[in-house]
Every structure is written in structure tokens, then in C-alpha cells.
Amino acid sequence: MTDFIPPYPKRHEKRLGPIDTLIHARRDLLSIWPEAAFNKQFMSIKIINRSIFVVNHPNIIRHVFITNHANYEKKSILMRKALEPLLGDGLFISDGATWAKHRELETPLFSTEQVAKYSQVMIDTTEERVKQWSSFKSDSTIPVLSEMGQLTAEIICRTLFGNQLGAAQAAQVIKSFADYQAVIEQMDINSFLGMPSWLPGLKWGSSKANKAAKVIHDIVDNVIVEAEKNINSSTLLAQFLKFQSNVVTSTTLTRQQIRNELIVLFMAGHETTANTMAWAWYLISQCPEVEQRLHAEVDSVLGNRSATFSDFHLLTYTRSILEETMRLYPPVPILSREAKADDVIRKRHVPAGSIMVAVPWLLHRHKQYWDKPDHFIPERFLHDGTESKQDRLTYIPFSIGPRVCIGKYFGTVEMTLCLAILARHFRLRVPEGQQVTHECRLTLRPKNNLPMQITMR
């Protein structure tokens, strides 16, 4: 086991007041937590007229996200306002009957059998990246976060659309997503806190966000029209077109709803995966014994061939590296819900409209639930690990409950196969003297694209 403690932001000695919390949150959502928060089970704060509760214990998370989820199914108003122009009534931000219907229709599309079919796209796309990386000179510096983003974007594009979304249009979609995210990540958090609407908020950037959203909508709409003429049955788009109807029923979707769901899957299917793989490369580079064990497993399982779907179940240590990476750097470090009605939790009154926040950043490093919580120890996720039998609700990188990420299995298979294929050929190193740090707004990613030096094994 390693003794490596990856960098994390300063933890305050005392709890910040409401104004300081706002100031820090606008810069970095991980910078607001005091040291004591990594020991607390339930916390609350009131800013202006908005009550915010932090749920930091498995039993309370179970109450909010599972047993009483109907009261807490709504995403926070900030999340809804930020993403609605792009996603419409898509699965990520819808709720109630709309969410339940879409979830029921889409869940079979991500079964083990279906993911096994999609895995060939993952493998082929990663092998193309191997050829590209092989052309680099030894010790060349590459932007690892961008490289992983391009890889995962290619995979999700081909899975969704096959070859119907050409390279130029795919690049345009990726750029428009980046433009949209740049706007919403800089927006003010007034909506979240229930402040007066005349205060500066998202409106200053709405034209840029709407422009980026329209580009994406137009491209995907056109792809759907073309797919209707020439259906490629191996794509997710083809599966969605089976639901299409102008008559709305419990088993149909309109073309606009199909578009929204495809955009949700693209958004959810590339950035968080890319962030995790980038962090994994960094962590591996800092721990020679982890890298050695990874290479031993990859060489043993794959030998001189590429990966297959059946290898996923054999790459246990590769997967444990990724699981530990998501523990230390959860892709979405804050999960927020809005209370529909009053509730009582641990004898505290929770008014309707309150924001309930589960914070994987705190939960995954909680001192009561994890041994050496700030250390990078992939072995803890192996079956013989000391923490392999702990409460599953202390580890929620894909959320939990009915709204758990629909692509959880897809993403896990994708990351495992991609990392194994690339690690079979390459080593990555952080250039001497370079400090690695994070940035966190909606997602948690390495700052400055994580430049690393690449060498062939």
C-alpha cells in the first residue's frame, strides 16, 4: 500500500460564516469546508432565506436519496436553471412523471448485454488513440485532460450516433458544450440561495449559453433527421427512434425529447469520465508500486493483444485504481436536492424548499468511515481490502438511489478498458517542478489540462 497523499485544498480551522462561504464558493466549491466537516454527520446553514443542510452520514443519505426520495427528487434550482436551456426535460434535470417515464424507457439501453455491444466502440476508439500517442516523441508533453476528453467524447459520439455525426460536427458539438459550460460555471449562485431576482445572476451570460445550446440542438436535430432515413441499428440513436411518436403515450417520446436525452447522455458520458481518467494518470504517476502492479495485471490479462469486454471482469486492480480515484476526486463532488415538503431529520425541522446536499468530497474522506482517508490506496477496493464491506452509502461517485447515474456500468467498463489499453503501451509522468491542483465548479477536474510527459513502455 502507498503512503502517497494527493494534494487537496486548505481546510479551515473554523466554520466559515455565510458571506465568507459565498466568497469561497464562487472561486472553488471545495474551499468552503472546515476540518471539522470531515467528522460531522449532519450540518446546516442559513444564507439569506435559504436553508442548506449537509447530509454526511449513510443513514441520512439513505433517507434523502432512497427511502424518502419522492420528497427530494428535484435537483436544486441552480442546477435546473443552469442546464434547462440545453437539456430541456432531459433525464438529468426532469422529475416526477416525466423523469419516471424516461428512466423506465432508457434503463434497458444500458444493460450488461447492451454495454457489451458498446464496448467494441470503446476498444476501437482507444486503439486509435494508441496509434496517435505512438507518433509522439519520447518525453513529449501532452495535455492529459484534453486527451482524455477527446477520447471519451469520440466514444460517446460513436455510441450515440455511429458515423452519422462526422468529425467536423463532432468537434463543433464538443466546442459548444465547452462554451456552454464556461458560461454556467461562472454564473452567480443567487438562484441557489433564493436571493432577489434583480441581483446579477445567470442572465449576464444567457445569450452565450443560448447560442451554444442552439448549435448543439441544430446539429443533433439534423442527425436525427438523417438517421430516420438510414437507420444504423447498432447506435443508441436507433434505439431511441423506436420510441418516437407524435402521439405522447407512456411508451413514446417526441423528437425533441429524444434530442434532449441524447444531449444528456453526451454531456454525462464524456466529461466526468475524462476527469476521472486524467486524475488516475496523475495518481499512478506518483506511486511506482501502483504503476508496477497495474502493468503486471495488464500484461497478464492482455498479453500482446487488445482488450475485449470479457477482460473487464479480470482487470480488478485496474478497476480499483479508478474506484479509488473517484473516492479522492469524485467527478461531481456535490449532489444537491430540493425538499418538496417539510421533513424532520435527526429532530431538526427541514422546511419545504430547503436544499439538501450530499457531498462526496466530504463523505469519501470522512474520518469515521475510511482508514487513512486522504491517502491513495487502490487496494481498499479489492475484495480482500479492509474496507470492501463497509456501508455502500459512504461511497457515491455516481450518486445513489433511484436517480443513480444511468450510465454507471457503461462508464466503469469504459474507464477500465481505456486505462488498461493505454497503460499496456505508455507511461505518463508529471514534469519536474510542476504542481498539480484542481478546479471545481460543477465538476472536479485537474487544473490547466494536466500536462504530463509521455513515454513508451
Structure characterization notes:
- The longest helix is centred in the middle third of the chain and has 31 residues.
- The protein has one domain: Cytochrome p450.
- The chain has a five-stranded mixed beta sheet. Strands 4-12-9 form a three-stranded antiparallel beta sheet. Strands 6-7 form a two-stranded antiparallel sheet.
- The chain is globular and about 60 Å long.
- The protein starts with 17 loop residues before the first helix and ends with a strand.
- Strand 1 and strand 2 form a beta hairpin.
- It is α+β, with helices and mostly antiparallel strands and 457 residues long.
- The protein is 47% helix and 11% strand.
Specify the number of helices.
15
Helix content: 40-55%
What is the molecular shape?
globular
Number of strands: 12
Strand order of the largest sheet: 1-2-8-5-3
Output mean pLDDT.
89
Q: Which second-level CATH architecture applies? A: Orthogonal Bundle
CATH superfamily, please?
Cytochrome P450
Per CATH, the class reads Mainly Alpha
Main β-sheet, in a few words? 5 strands, mixed
Q: Could you spell the SSE succession in H and E letters?
A: HEEHEHHHEHHHHHHHHEEEEHHEEEE
Note the beta-strand portion. 5-15%
**C-alpha end-to-end distance:** 23 Å
CATH fold description: Cytochrome p450
